[in-house]
Design goal:
Elements (H helix, E strand, L loop, with lengths): L1 H7 L36 H20 L6 H4 L4 H14 L13 H24 L6 H10 L2 H13 L6 H26 L8 H21 L4
Keywords: Membrane, Transmembrane, Transmembrane helix
Subcellular location: Golgi apparatus membrane; Membrane
Organism: Iphiclides podalirius
Protein backbone atom coordinates (compact mmCIF):
# COMPACT_ATOMS: atom_id res chain seq x y z
CA UNK A 1 0.00 0.00 0.00
CA UNK A 2 2.90 2.35 0.73
CA UNK A 3 4.42 1.77 -2.69
CA UNK A 4 1.07 2.42 -4.41
CA UNK A 5 0.50 5.70 -2.53
CA UNK A 6 3.98 7.05 -3.18
CA UNK A 7 3.52 6.42 -6.90
CA UNK A 8 0.59 8.80 -7.06
CA UNK A 9 2.03 11.33 -4.62
CA UNK A 10 4.39 12.38 -7.44
CA UNK A 11 1.51 14.32 -9.04
CA UNK A 12 -0.12 16.82 -6.64
CA UNK A 13 -3.81 17.50 -6.99
CA UNK A 14 -4.53 19.79 -9.92
CA UNK A 15 -1.27 19.03 -11.80
CA UNK A 16 -2.38 15.83 -13.51
CA UNK A 17 -2.75 16.29 -17.26
CA UNK A 18 -0.54 19.40 -17.39
CA UNK A 19 3.21 19.51 -17.89
CA UNK A 20 4.76 22.74 -16.59
CA UNK A 21 6.04 24.89 -19.41
CA UNK A 22 4.45 22.85 -22.17
CA UNK A 23 1.18 22.71 -24.07
CA UNK A 24 -1.81 20.90 -22.53
CA UNK A 25 -1.55 17.13 -22.95
CA UNK A 26 -4.88 15.28 -23.31
CA UNK A 27 -5.85 12.87 -20.59
CA UNK A 28 -6.83 10.13 -23.10
CA UNK A 29 -10.25 9.90 -21.49
CA UNK A 30 -8.96 7.86 -18.57
CA UNK A 31 -11.27 7.71 -15.55
CA UNK A 32 -10.29 9.75 -12.52
CA UNK A 33 -7.83 7.96 -10.24
CA UNK A 34 -6.34 5.74 -12.94
CA UNK A 35 -2.92 5.98 -14.52
CA UNK A 36 -2.71 8.56 -17.31
CA UNK A 37 -0.47 8.68 -20.37
CA UNK A 38 1.88 11.68 -20.37
CA UNK A 39 3.26 11.42 -23.91
CA UNK A 40 1.86 12.03 -27.39
CA UNK A 41 3.88 9.46 -29.32
CA UNK A 42 0.75 7.59 -30.40
CA UNK A 43 -1.18 10.79 -31.21
CA UNK A 44 -1.72 11.71 -34.90
CA UNK A 45 0.54 14.55 -36.06
CA UNK A 46 -2.45 16.56 -37.27
CA UNK A 47 -4.12 16.34 -33.85
CA UNK A 48 -0.92 17.45 -32.09
CA UNK A 49 -0.43 20.34 -34.51
CA UNK A 50 -4.03 21.53 -34.23
CA UNK A 51 -3.97 21.31 -30.42
CA UNK A 52 -0.79 23.40 -30.23
CA UNK A 53 -2.19 25.85 -32.78
CA UNK A 54 -5.33 26.30 -30.70
CA UNK A 55 -3.17 26.90 -27.61
CA UNK A 56 -1.25 29.66 -29.43
CA UNK A 57 -4.50 31.20 -30.70
CA UNK A 58 -5.96 31.12 -27.20
CA UNK A 59 -2.98 33.09 -25.89
CA UNK A 60 -3.45 35.70 -28.63
CA UNK A 61 -7.11 35.98 -27.59
CA UNK A 62 -6.12 36.61 -23.96
CA UNK A 63 -3.76 39.38 -25.10
CA UNK A 64 -6.58 41.07 -27.03
CA UNK A 65 -8.88 40.78 -24.01
CA UNK A 66 -6.50 40.68 -21.02
CA UNK A 67 -8.88 39.65 -18.27
CA UNK A 68 -7.54 36.30 -17.06
CA UNK A 69 -4.06 36.65 -15.59
CA UNK A 70 -2.66 33.11 -15.59
CA UNK A 71 -3.21 31.92 -19.17
CA UNK A 72 0.18 33.03 -20.49
CA UNK A 73 2.02 32.12 -17.30
CA UNK A 74 0.78 28.62 -16.57
CA UNK A 75 1.98 27.05 -19.81
CA UNK A 76 4.50 29.26 -21.59
CA UNK A 77 5.69 28.74 -25.14
CA UNK A 78 7.69 30.82 -27.61
CA UNK A 79 5.89 29.90 -30.85
CA UNK A 80 3.65 32.95 -30.80
CA UNK A 81 6.46 35.42 -30.01
CA UNK A 82 8.62 33.86 -32.75
CA UNK A 83 5.79 34.23 -35.26
CA UNK A 84 5.15 37.88 -34.34
CA UNK A 85 8.85 38.75 -34.30
CA UNK A 86 9.41 37.20 -37.74
CA UNK A 87 6.33 38.95 -39.15
CA UNK A 88 7.37 42.37 -37.84
CA UNK A 89 10.99 41.96 -38.94
CA UNK A 90 9.87 40.92 -42.43
CA UNK A 91 7.55 43.92 -42.84
CA UNK A 92 10.00 46.41 -41.35
CA UNK A 93 13.06 45.28 -43.28
CA UNK A 94 14.38 47.85 -45.72
CA UNK A 95 12.24 50.58 -44.15
CA UNK A 96 15.14 52.93 -43.52
CA UNK A 97 16.35 55.08 -46.42
CA UNK A 98 20.02 54.50 -47.02
CA UNK A 99 22.50 56.39 -49.19
CA UNK A 100 23.48 53.10 -50.74
CA UNK A 101 20.49 52.14 -52.88
CA UNK A 102 21.90 48.65 -53.42
CA UNK A 103 21.03 47.73 -49.86
CA UNK A 104 18.67 44.74 -49.87
CA UNK A 105 17.16 45.31 -46.41
CA UNK A 106 18.78 42.23 -44.86
CA UNK A 107 20.42 44.04 -41.93
CA UNK A 108 17.11 45.64 -40.94
CA UNK A 109 15.55 42.20 -40.54
CA UNK A 110 18.35 41.16 -38.20
CA UNK A 111 18.17 44.43 -36.29
CA UNK A 112 14.44 44.11 -35.60
CA UNK A 113 14.78 40.42 -34.74
CA UNK A 114 17.62 41.05 -32.29
CA UNK A 115 15.90 44.14 -30.84
CA UNK A 116 12.78 42.14 -29.94
CA UNK A 117 14.56 39.21 -28.28
CA UNK A 118 17.36 41.14 -26.59
CA UNK A 119 14.86 43.75 -25.42
CA UNK A 120 12.56 41.10 -23.97
CA UNK A 121 15.53 39.46 -22.24
CA UNK A 122 16.67 42.76 -20.70
CA UNK A 123 13.16 43.61 -19.46
CA UNK A 124 12.87 40.11 -18.00
CA UNK A 125 16.28 40.35 -16.31
CA UNK A 126 15.22 43.67 -14.76
CA UNK A 127 12.04 42.03 -13.48
CA UNK A 128 14.00 39.16 -11.93
CA UNK A 129 16.49 41.53 -10.29
CA UNK A 130 13.59 43.41 -8.72
CA UNK A 131 12.40 40.16 -7.12
CA UNK A 132 9.79 38.99 -9.64
CA UNK A 133 8.37 35.57 -8.82
CA UNK A 134 7.95 34.19 -12.36
CA UNK A 135 10.48 32.31 -14.46
CA UNK A 136 12.62 33.88 -17.18
CA UNK A 137 10.82 32.11 -20.03
CA UNK A 138 7.37 32.87 -18.62
CA UNK A 139 8.19 36.59 -18.74
CA UNK A 140 9.67 36.39 -22.27
CA UNK A 141 6.54 34.49 -23.36
CA UNK A 142 4.22 37.21 -22.03
CA UNK A 143 6.29 40.05 -23.50
CA UNK A 144 6.38 38.28 -26.85
CA UNK A 145 2.68 37.52 -27.05
CA UNK A 146 1.84 41.08 -26.00
CA UNK A 147 3.52 42.27 -29.21
CA UNK A 148 0.28 41.25 -30.94
CA UNK A 149 -1.40 44.71 -30.79
CA UNK A 150 1.77 46.36 -32.14
CA UNK A 151 1.97 43.79 -34.94
CA UNK A 152 -1.67 44.51 -35.84
CA UNK A 153 -0.89 48.24 -35.86
CA UNK A 154 2.07 47.57 -38.16
CA UNK A 155 -0.09 45.64 -40.64
CA UNK A 156 -2.72 48.40 -40.71
CA UNK A 157 -0.06 51.10 -41.14
CA UNK A 158 1.53 49.09 -43.92
CA UNK A 159 -1.78 49.01 -45.78
CA UNK A 160 -2.19 52.79 -45.30
CA UNK A 161 1.28 53.30 -46.82
CA UNK A 162 0.07 51.99 -50.18
CA UNK A 163 -1.93 55.18 -50.64
CA UNK A 164 -0.58 58.66 -51.40
CA UNK A 165 0.78 59.98 -48.12
CA UNK A 166 -0.17 63.29 -46.51
CA UNK A 167 -0.20 64.83 -43.05
CA UNK A 168 -3.55 63.31 -42.14
CA UNK A 169 -2.43 59.77 -42.98
CA UNK A 170 0.77 60.25 -40.98
CA UNK A 171 -1.31 61.39 -38.01
CA UNK A 172 -3.59 58.38 -38.52
CA UNK A 173 -0.60 56.02 -38.50
CA UNK A 174 0.69 57.75 -35.36
CA UNK A 175 -2.64 57.25 -33.59
CA UNK A 176 -2.86 53.59 -34.64
CA UNK A 177 0.70 52.95 -33.46
CA UNK A 178 0.04 54.62 -30.09
CA UNK A 179 -3.11 52.56 -29.61
CA UNK A 180 -1.06 49.42 -30.26
CA UNK A 181 1.58 50.64 -27.81
CA UNK A 182 -0.95 51.36 -25.04
CA UNK A 183 -2.77 48.08 -25.66
CA UNK A 184 0.45 46.03 -25.55
CA UNK A 185 1.69 47.79 -22.41
CA UNK A 186 -1.64 47.35 -20.64
CA UNK A 187 -1.79 43.64 -21.51
CA UNK A 188 1.79 43.01 -20.38
CA UNK A 189 1.35 44.83 -17.07
CA UNK A 190 -1.95 43.01 -16.53
CA UNK A 191 -0.19 39.66 -16.73
CA UNK A 192 3.14 40.60 -15.12
CA UNK A 193 2.04 43.21 -12.57
CA UNK A 194 1.21 40.79 -9.76
CA UNK A 195 4.57 39.04 -10.12
CA UNK A 196 6.42 42.07 -8.72
CA UNK A 197 6.78 42.89 -5.02
CA UNK A 198 4.85 45.85 -3.67
CA UNK A 199 6.69 49.14 -4.07
CA UNK A 200 8.69 47.98 -7.09
CA UNK A 201 5.96 47.65 -9.70
CA UNK A 202 6.72 51.06 -11.22
CA UNK A 203 10.37 50.08 -11.67
CA UNK A 204 9.26 46.94 -13.51
CA UNK A 205 6.63 48.65 -15.68
CA UNK A 206 8.92 51.45 -16.92
CA UNK A 207 11.23 49.14 -18.98
CA UNK A 208 8.15 47.42 -20.42
CA UNK A 209 6.79 50.78 -21.60
CA UNK A 210 10.17 51.72 -23.07
CA UNK A 211 10.46 48.37 -24.86
CA UNK A 212 7.06 48.66 -26.53
CA UNK A 213 7.53 52.37 -27.22
CA UNK A 214 10.69 51.69 -29.25
CA UNK A 215 8.91 49.03 -31.29
CA UNK A 216 5.91 51.32 -31.81
CA UNK A 217 8.22 54.10 -32.98
CA UNK A 218 9.63 51.71 -35.59
CA UNK A 219 6.07 51.19 -36.78
CA UNK A 220 5.48 54.96 -37.09
CA UNK A 221 8.81 55.61 -38.80
CA UNK A 222 8.31 52.78 -41.28
CA UNK A 223 7.70 54.54 -44.59
CA UNK A 224 9.35 52.52 -47.37
CA UNK A 225 6.70 50.65 -49.43
Amino acid sequence: MTTFDSKYDMFPAGDVGIVEGEMNIPSRGMPSGESMEFNTLDEPIKETFMRDLRAVGNKFFHVLIPREKTSLLKEWDLWGPLLLCTLMATILQGSTERADNSNDGGPEFAEVFVLVWIGAAIVTANSKLLGGNISFFQSVCVLGYCLFPIALALIICRIILFTTQNSFLFFLRLVISMVGFIWATFAATKFLGDSQPEGKKALAVYPICLFYFILSWLVVSHSNV
